[in-house]
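Supplementary Methods S3. Input chains for the assembly prediction are listed below.
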Amino acid sequence: MTGYLLRRIAQAVVVVVLVATIAFFLIHLAPGDPFAAAVENPNVSEGVRAHWRDAYGLDRPLPEQFVRYIASVTKGDLGWSFSLQRPVLDVLADALPHTLLLMSIALTASFALGIFLAITQVMKRGSATDRIISGVSLLFFSTPEFWLALMVIVLLAYRFPVFPIGGMVDPVTHSSLGPVFRIVDVARHTVLPALTLTLLFSAVVARYQRASLLDVLPSEYITTARAKGVPERVIVRRHALRNALLPVITLFGLAFPALLTGAVYVEKVFSWPGMGLVIVNSIDTRDYPLLMAAVIIGSILVTAGSLVADLLYRAFDPRLRHEG
Amino acid sequence: MTEPLLSVENLRTWFHTGDAVAKAVDGVSFSIGSGETLGIVGESGCGKSVTALSILRLVQQPGRIESGSRIMFEGKDLVTLDDAAMRDIRGNRISMIFQEPMSALNPVFTVGDQVAEVARIHGHGSRRDAWNRAVEMLSLTGIPAPEERAKEYPHQLSGGMRQRVLIAMALIMNPALVIADEPTTALDVTIQAQILELLVDLQKRFGTSILMITHDLGVIAETASRVVVMYCGEVVEEAEVDTLFAAAHHPYTEGLMHAMPQLSEPRARLNVIPGSVPAPTDWPSGCRFRDRCPYSWERCEREHPPLYEISPTHTSRCHLAVEPEHRANPHPPLVEQLGVSV
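Predicted structure tokens for the full assembly:
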């Protein structure tokens, strides 16, 4: 097991380094640079731009820039964000917890709700309940994120102003609130973006889980369980679910990176100050150091997600546990 | 005979698929006494497994037990019993041993847990009690080091060991009836003999009745006292085992006997019954075996034979019972005359 983990971690390091390398060159090969806006500004002289490029080392050959970047990253320095004019580490320290808060709630709720819905459907397969849940989940499955986010705002923040329209805290009152009310304030702001993401993602989970449960139910060991006198709800929740979780675990592994990379559209629509917004802005402004940091975090999370999925497979399926 | 333990009367289990109705089990009746082993024999598709599943009401949609069928067990009709009462019987009063021990065990639970689950559902003791009971049963079925084995998963055991686990699972509540559906088909020959011996042994010990479902007349000979031969969803012959082997009446049973390879005889081509079982959506009218039968005559096409009484303990669904003279001149069966390949 330890050997397996070490092997997987070594693989992950290789993947992250490769992704970072490719991303670095691609980003720099894309047209424009952090001072593109300044370039178009007639009031900024060529001398000033040259000075900036020199100061940030952008006039050096690309391979040299790359080596310098890698060297500074290994020292723990992720560089300076051009667009925000502050250290990349500070930007991440602000944005990552925001995204983690929103996405951990949304993902937990999605998987819990999705699996629950699928079990409900399978218990009553073919019934009106089953068909209605299937229909509604297909609807959410095919709804664009940004549109659903807008509709949620229209309904629950505008027509019936129950929840705030966007942001993560109330900009006027938050700083004057006591600690408990600060938490309440953040919770109120979290509801709508989390709800939007949960509606979208639980639909996907429910569809996968239902299909996979229906695949497992005709198995002989399910007939054995029935022949033992096991009640149908225990059959579905215990005997079938444990075997039907694998595709949903795969889905979880794929969704895992979003914990830290966020949901771009939903964060944008709800002005959620998380990684999704940071990534979009860093692309817009060709903010190389910030974008590179986001890419590296993303690739670490992707490899971590597949490792987490593998470990979960092993936890749920003893046959995999006993392979080397 | 005293009141039988289980009595199946006119069981019809049909599968309603689209416009067609597959009459997998079509009017089957038999009974089993306490402590008796009844064999049901027949080739694939004759309805023997569906009969077994019907007794426990485990036939899944679109299969349905048709009204008019009765399955009397300990004074109750299982066909009309409510679901909760039926669950109470499953695994507790009637249990089942399946053919494929690998796929019949859930891969993600330990075997001990799967055996103990039966005791947890039907027993009243604690989890601990159920586990201890499971280990005890595993030991009774001849699994060495049962305490360690109980903590293992199905894929860690051999085929024979897995079948012992299924037997432990079936017997843990000391049921009145065990339905064994081809319990040895998936096993090596040497293991087969061990498993059959174990079943007979445990049956004597617990006084359990066994419904032994198989296509293998050898298994019947070793375990059963009476045999029901099924063909095309019907019982075609029922007799004591000795009678059946000595004097089978129905031409289908006769064919099955001839199809058994004999080690004592010099190597020859294996005898087969020409043709194959017709589709259950379209059983032939008249006698359902007539196209494959070497004795069939005009009456077999016209008239569906009833179960004739050959002796008080022997019945056969063949007109030869009343017109035995037709046995004197066999002819190539119709399927061969029509040039249908075997």
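DSSP finds 16 helices and two strands in chain A. The beta strands of chain A are 80-81, 86-87.
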